[in-house]
Amino acid sequence: MKSYTERRHYIEHWDAEDVEAWEAGGKDVAKRNLIWSVIAEHVGFSVWSIWSVMVLFMPSDIYGIDAAGKFFLVAVPTLVGSILRIPYTVATARFGGRNWTVFSALVLFVPTLGVLYLMTNPGASYTTFMLVAALAGVGGGNFASSMTNINAFYPQRLKGWALGLNAGGGNIGVPTIQLIGLFVIATIGNQAPWIVCAVYLVFVAAAAVGAALFMDNLGNQKSDLRSMATALKFSRSWVISFLYVGTFGSFIGFSFAFGQILQINYLAGGATPAEAALSAAQIAFIGPLLGSIARPLGGKLADRIGGGKITVYTFAAMAVAAGVLVVAGTVDDASEGAATGAVMATFVLGFIALFLLSGLGNGSVYKMIPAIFEAKAQGLVGLDRADKAAWSRSMSGALIGFAGAVGGLGGVGINLVLRASYNSPAKSATMAFWVFLTFYLVCIAVTWFVFLRRPSPHESPARDDEKTLSAVV
Fold first, then answer.
1. What's the CA gap between 352 and 289, in Å, rounded?
2. Is the alpha carbon torsion for 119, 288, 108, 412 positive or negative?
3. Which of the chain's termini has less CB crowding within 10 Å, N or C?
4. Residue 357: how many CA atoms within 13 Å on its side-chain side?
5. SS3 assignment, position 11
């Protein structure tokens, strides 16, 4: 850690795999950076998901936006945030983890102020709402830069836990802003959304100042678009990205949509807009909270049991939960609302299970990324241990960003499928539940075939990017 003490907030040579240096103080440096990375990412997730709360403050008769319009509105920041994850992935190596965390936190002022202005001026056009919603997408990019940065700080043996904790702490930003929205609705009503925005202006400032004071830049990092292109030459990189659609896509998609689904059902049951908003807010935060808490647990289980096994078990359970939603939706459609109370309870339990399981899956899938490239690095010829570790970090960081971007697009798909389902003749989410069930079954098959299946002795020898990695995943 000599170079760290010589130059404030900058570490020229960082080797997390050096056990002696790690125990001599390296783990304390990594922990400090992890804490503030979690805080900054946490605030980013909150701003990214701010519209999942704002729609509860938007009665259709005042804002002129129906349920279908609201589903599309919350899909826009999901899309923008997913795309931004690709440039955010390479930003930490280019500008420094500390520097970029400070900048990306300060940028969150823009969408927060935009929402504050728009929600106090409800006469704006739907196009204006869409443009301001798109600005919230910058909060989604924070995840990629934060994960890439923390991946560089921790040794291979601790990456599952560290990445899971970093991502889980960030994910908790979703239920946090929903809880703040609940507090405002419960105490003041659904006419004061500006209070939520004002609270987050303070949180954004705190995250930026904390990152500036307590985080560090690493000098020996490399992660650029060329690294990403190299990582994507391995077919397993595409498989990981696909599986992340099923885990993180489910988490963020349901996080943005769950409150609105509840609100629609409460309105159908005869509640007033204010009553429906309060009832939905009282429940909506529970799912994202449990999913966020489960994420580091998924990473830890993957460290011990294997990412592939935990992932396939998770998708199997998610398929069961989606099947429960299909049954509940079918019964509700047939009863034309007569079974509303029982169906609502089943809906809530089914969604809570999906949130919890998607959190476990998020941790296990991301554990597989550094494990895959660490195994691949050991087969590289002509590189010493330090160079192999640097190559593995570079490839892992690049894929973390790309998989995060692709996974986020799953959240867009969920909201668009729900929008189409509610616009169907049945006017319910049942069709969407069938789509989710089918997708989880496909994810089970893909995970088993690529990571758990034992190759037949009659199969042709695997290519370099298809060698068996069951020992690490």
1. 10
2. negative
3. N
4. 21
5. strand
- Phi, psi at residue 10, to the nearest 5°? -140, 130
Phi, then psi, of 339 in degrees rounded to 5: -100, 30
Question: What does the pLDDT look like over 142-163, one tens digit per residue?
Answer: 988 998 899 889 987 888 788 8
The structure tokens listed for 318 are 């998610």
Q: How far apart are CA 109 and CA 185, in angstroms?
A: 23
| Angstrom distance (rounded) from CA 102 to CA 232 | 29
Q: Cα dihedral angle (59, 343, 50, 360), rounded to 10 degrees?
A: 180
Strand ranges for 140-220 from DSSP E: 217-218
Give the H or E element holding residue 10. Answer: strand 10-11
SS3 content of the chain, % helix, strand, coil (to 5): 80, 0, 20
Phi, psi dihedrals of residue 427, rounded to the nearest 5°: 55, 40
Cα–Cα dist 393/374, whole Å = 8
End-to-end alpha carbon distance in the chain: 32
Tokens of 362: 């998020």
DSSP string, 413-465: HHHHHHHHHHTSTT-SSHHHHHHHHHHHHHHHHHHIIIIIPPPPTTSPPPPGG
Tokens 């668009």, residue located: 416
Residue 338, pLDDT > 80, answer no
| Phi, then psi, of 107 in degrees rounded to 5 | -60, -25
d(CA 183, CA 79): 28
The tens digit of pLDDT for each residue in 418-436 reads: 999 988 887 888 999 999 9
The number of beta carbons lying within 10 Å of the beta carbon of residue 28 is 12
Q: Domain extents for the chain?
A: 2-466
Report the pLDDT averaged over residues 286-297: 90
CATH number for domain 2-466, candidates 3.40.190.10, 1.25.40.10, 1.10.3210.10, 1.20.1250.20: 1.20.1250.20
Residue type, 302: A
What is the C-alpha to C-alpha distance for residues 223 and 226, in angstroms, rounded to an integer? 8
Alpha-carbon span 256 to 56, nearest angstrom: 11
Identity of residue 143: F
Check: CB of residue 391 under 8 Å from CB of residue 377.
Answer: yes
Give the residue carrying structure tokens 């020992």. Answer: 471
Residue listed under structure tokens 């060698």: 467
Distance CA 427, CA 329 (A): 11
Find, among 177, 194, 173, 172, the residue nearest to 53 by Cα: 177
CA distance 148 to 97: 9
User: By C-alpha distance, which of 201, 203, 197 is closest to 57?
Assistant: 197
Contacts of 342 (CB under 8 A, 6+ apart): none
Joined together, the tokens standing for residue 437 give 């069930």
Given a cut of 80, is residue 118 above it in pLDDT?
A: yes
